[in-house]
Amino acid sequence: MKNYLRLVLLSLLLVCFRTHQVSGEERKGTISMGFQYQYSLMGGVSEYADNYDGGIGYGIKLKYYLGKKKAIGISFENQYHDATLEPATVDDPGRLQFNTTTVEFFRYFERNKPVSRYVVIGAGLCQPTVLWSAGGPERTEDGPIVTAGAGTEFFISRSIAVDFRLKGSTFVNDDGLTAAGFFSVGFAYYVVN
Questions:
Q1: Burial readout 113-139 (b: 16 or more C-beta within 10 A, e: otherwise)
Q2: Handedness of CA 50, 74, 150, 57 (dihedral sign)
Q3: Assign residue 58 a region: left if phi > 0, alpha if psi is -120 to 50, beta otherwise?
Q4: Helix (H, G, I), strand (E, B), or coil: what is residue 186?
Q5: Which mean pLDDT values do the consecutive 10-residue runs of the chain (193 residues) have?
Q6: Which residues does residue 41 pair with via DSSP β-bridges, in sequence order?
Q7: pLDDT score recorded for residue 9
Q8: How far is it, in rounded angstroms, from Cα 81 to Cα 38?
């Protein structure tokens, strides 16, 4: 959690102390690669939601700008959720890990300005793994995941942006419906000519 707060603070400092105003690259065919660090809270009507709480995670993003303020991307995320109760025995679950792969569609607003806002929707596959206190992982049933959110990119140079995002997701498998809310901060590098 300390590292997460440090990253958020560093990102805010970079945004606040930009030396000049720059805007994002908006040519069709522009590719961006990014990394994000995130915190999430879990809810829903599933055994996961009953037994696990919030946790930290990270993700890798790739985006392709389609032009006309639209982009498509793919996201690979690894999210951990801590157990709501401390494990009393070695047979109790310790953490829950979600590995997700989603295809995302972005709609940007004010793309040619130093601060670019967007909305994003996505769909993909979620692969949960229970990490038992005794140390052994147990894969559970995979299922579809749907995500939606909004974010803001602050360009600190023509090719580098600090990205803040709020996102919600819904995951369904035999265990039930699990929902999560995320706050993420990350960096995006735009490959520009």
A1: ebebebebebebebbbebbebeeeeee
A2: positive
A3: beta
A4: strand
A5: 59 54 68 94 84 91 91 96 74 82 94 89 94 73 94 90 95 86 94 75
A6: 181
A7: 60
A8: 12
**Total residues belonging to the chain:** 193
- Residue 188 has a CB neighbour count (10 Å cut-off) of 19
Cβ distance 34 to 186 under 8 Å? yes
pLDDT confidence of residue 19: 45
- 4's enclosing H/E stretch is helix 2-16
pTM: 0.82
Q: Distance of alpha carbon 116 from its chain centroid, rounded?
A: 18
DSSP 134-174: TS-EEE---EEEEEEEEEEEEESSSSEEEEEEEEEEEEEET
**Residue 181 near residue 151 (C-beta atoms within 8 A):** no
What is the C-alpha to C-alpha distance for residues 104 and 146, in angstroms, rounded to an integer?
10
- Would you state the structure tokens that stand for residue 13, as one six-digit string? 């400092």
SS3 per-residue string spanning 6-67: HHHHHHHHHHHCCCCCCCCCCCCCCEEEEEEEEEEEEEEEEHHHHHECCEEEEEEEEEEEEE
Residues 6 or more apart from 56 whose CB is under 8 A from it?
1, 4, 37, 38, 39, 79, 80
Amino acid identity of 124? G
